[in-house]
Amino acid sequence: MLACSLTMKCSKLYVILIYLNIVLVRGNIHQKCCGVGEQIVEKEFRFICEKLINRRLQDTFEDREFLKRNVTGTCLEIFSETNITLFGVDEITRSIEKQKEYEGFFFPKCCPLKSHYNKTTHSCTEEVGNFFNILKVDSFVQVGLPECEIISDQIFESMEAVQLIGKELLLKEDNTTLEDGYCLDSTLDGKLVVRICEADTSICSQIRCISKCCPDGQSFINGSFCRDTFTHGVDLHFTKAILEPDDPFIIIHNNFKPLQLLSERKYEIQLDKSGVFSARNRNSSSQSKTYNHIYCVEHAFKEMNGTMTMNAYRIFVKPKQPPIPKKILITRYIKIVSCIFLLLTIAVYLLLPKMRNLFGKMLLNYCVSTFIFFASLTLTQFYQLRDIGCKFIGFLSFLSSFWSFTWLHLMCIDIWFSFGTPRTLYGTLQKDETKRLLQYSAIGWGFPILWVTFIALLSITNIMPELMHPYIGEGKCFLEDSERRPGNYSYILYLTIPLLIQQIFNVLLFVKTILYCLRIKAEIERMNDCEKRTKMNSCQERYNPHILIFNRLSLIMKLAIIMGVLFIFETVSSFVDFRKNVCTEYIEVVWDSINCFQGVYIFIIFICKKKVYCNICEKITILKSEMSSVTSNTTTQVSMHNISESKNT
Question: Which residues contact 601 (CB under 8 A, 6 or more apart)?
């Protein structure tokens, strides 16, 4: 009996010495460089303390803020999310220098400090005291296993069941060694839990697996956004549809998008003992549909304007992908054709300097913005982007649509400004062409950026009520409309109405300009006699810039009429669902197809002209002659060099 007691004491002492050795190696001999919740970053070739963004990196240091004391010596600090670095303060210069980096320096704790593991809900609970007395000594901690997709829990009665040797963890019961992908913590009843990253789902044949939407330690906050909470794991007692909720289970992090909340009022659901999930529509007589790991359980918290609207566990499923609408199947290829013709238009304007007057440069900007818009839309229609990629393309599409319409609006303003009065403004306007182009560029590129930045701020905050809150890159890679989010009118408010206002101004400017053109045409027709016709001809030759403006006006009118008419249809489609009727659905497909041919219209209107063709041929001839000249000069130089060498020989 005495021998047994001595053996147990020696064993405990052995474990404590192992842990003490780890901690001494890891930092007990040093102080922490920065304060609580801070780390060192390098800025402008010097090291400073800044707030630690990653909540999963913590420490148990009692002696902190070494650098604030302005003394010499060394200290330890977090310098990256994987390494701890030893820093030293130079005795002479008092500068901070990096001396050594330590990998694998973090103690793998399953829950944050002052928290313990709840083995029933697979979450963390704050409680006074800490099972790991060793953590009272200075050490750095990394919380949880956020990178693991499959996590199993093993519960042991005490610390004697495991042994830490450096970074490796030995499980004595089955003599298994874990090099990484694990964490340790104490349970609420004082036992030891070891959470392990499993390699594959084969373990699900031995124990039930439950799909969780977010990674370890995270849950949904204000939408389908996974945030570190640590207090919400998986509690299976929230519904009677889950059989045997107290049985042990393994968590699979099934972070798929998009998500659909499964309502138990509409569906009869069941999660059996083996982990098979099924759901059947209560209003349907068909058999249950088995989802089989395309579901997930998650705690969701949502708050709007200070009022909590959700704070409970819910079941989400991966919605069945709806068939691709006919208009997308057709128009995505038309958009590709438009992009090709837009690129050809841009290439011609870059090739011919004569075409790059003020209006030509404005048209060039318009083509670039329209190309970006069509290209980003086409990308989302061929590929299913997720998360950051979807948000980026969503904001880019939203921004480029405003760029396109704003540059069209500016071209309309330029036409009215150049040709809206009886005075000959062409010569005067030509002198300050650069200044006007800069002003137009500031508006054409800058105003949409400011507007979209404002929308982005609204989307990441909860300032606006639900019916006005903009959602971009969540359900689809663009600003979501009321069809996808019933009761939400952000699409109409932030996209349709601003573009409609621009188009109304365009129409007003065109009306004023057209009236002036008609008045001039009427005056010309009144000059019937030959003398007056002769004078008029000379007048036309004198005011040749006016003729150019007339030609320019006719071209831009074609473009603006096309876009204006189609935009009226787009405005109507924001309020009416054309897919409810087969006839209206085909009308929508036709109009959308016409709308997507814009790149072709631009090419035909502005490039398909005899004058442009002649200029291109002339430019190509010049380029060929220049190339021939360069080749000829090179050949001559080589020949002269050879002759010179022959003479020397």
Answer: 558, 559, 562
Residue appearing with tokens 């005011």 = 543
- In this structure, are 94 and 122 located in the same domain? no
User: Could you tell me which residues are beta bridge partners of residue 195?
Assistant: 153, 183
User: What mean pLDDT do residues 281-305 have?
Assistant: 72
Number of Cβ within 10 Å of residue 514's Cβ equals: 12
- Provide φ and ψ at 209, rounded to 5°: -110, 135
H/E run at residue 298: strand 295-304
Q: Residue 366 and residue 270: Cα distance in Å, rounded? A: 55
Taking the mean position of all CA atoms in its chain, how far away is CA 320?
24
Are both 67 and 122 inside the same structural domain? no
Residue burial 243-264, b: 16+ Cβ < 10 Å; e: rest: eebeeebbbbbbbeebbeebee
Range of the domain at 377: 329-611
Please tell me the distance from the alpha carbon of residue 448 to that of residue 42, in angstroms, as a whole number: 35
**What values do phi and psi take at 11, rounded to 5?**
-65, -45
Which helix (H) or strand (E) element contains residue 317?
Answer: strand 307-317
151 shares a domain with 104: no
Q: Which residue carries 């096309």 as its tokens? A: 562
**How many percent of the chain have pLDDT more than 70?**
76
Do the beta carbons of residue 60 and residue 44 sit within 8 Å? no
What does DSSP say about strands 250-253 and 226-228: parallel, antiparallel, or unpaired? Answer: unpaired
Chain centroid to Cα 350, Å, comes to: 32
| Residue owning tokens 């630690």 | 52
564 — pLDDT class (breaks 50, 70, 90):
low
Cα angle 170-176-179, degrees, rounded to a multiple of 5: 60
Percent of the chain past pLDDT 90, that is, above it, reads 21
In a domain, 322, yes or no: no
CA–CA separation, 210 vs 155, rounded Å? 18
Q: Tell me the C-alpha distance between 60 and 31, whole Å.
A: 11
In-domain check, residue 625: no
Looking at the structure, tell me whether residues 290 and 369 fall in a common domain. no
Same-domain check for residues 76 and 180: no
Same domain, 361 and 296: no
Cis peptide before 325 (omega within 30 of 0): no
Phi, psi of 41 (to 5 degrees): -130, 155
165 with 42, same domain: the answer is no
CA separation for the pair 548, 304 (Å, rounded): 57
One-letter identity of residue 479:
L
CA-closest candidate to residue 298, choices 335, 345, 252: 252
CA angle 622, 624, 625 (to 5 degrees): 65
Provide the phi-psi class of 317: left if phi over 0, else alpha when psi is between -120 and 50, else beta.
Answer: beta
Q: What is the largest CA-CA distance in the chain?
A: 135
Rounded CA gap, 358 and 302, in Å? 52
The residue among 48, 43, 41, 75 whose CA lies nearest residue 59 is 75
- 71-85, 272-286, 605-619, range with the lowest pLDDT: 272-286
Q: How far apart are CA 406 and CA 374, in angstroms?
A: 16
CATH code of residue 339: 1.20.1070.10
- In a shared domain, residues 463 and 603: yes
Q: What is the mean pLDDT of the chain?
A: 78
Which of 191, 183, 164 is closest to 14 using CA atoms? Answer: 164
Contacts of 13 (CB under 8 A, 6+ apart): none
Q: Which residues pair with 546 in a beta bridge?
A: none
Helix residue ranges per DSSP H, 481-581: 490-491, 497-526, 530-542, 544-575
Closest CA to 513 of 476, 480, 556: 556
Instruction: Supply the DSSP symbol for 187.
Output: B
Number of domains in the chain: 3
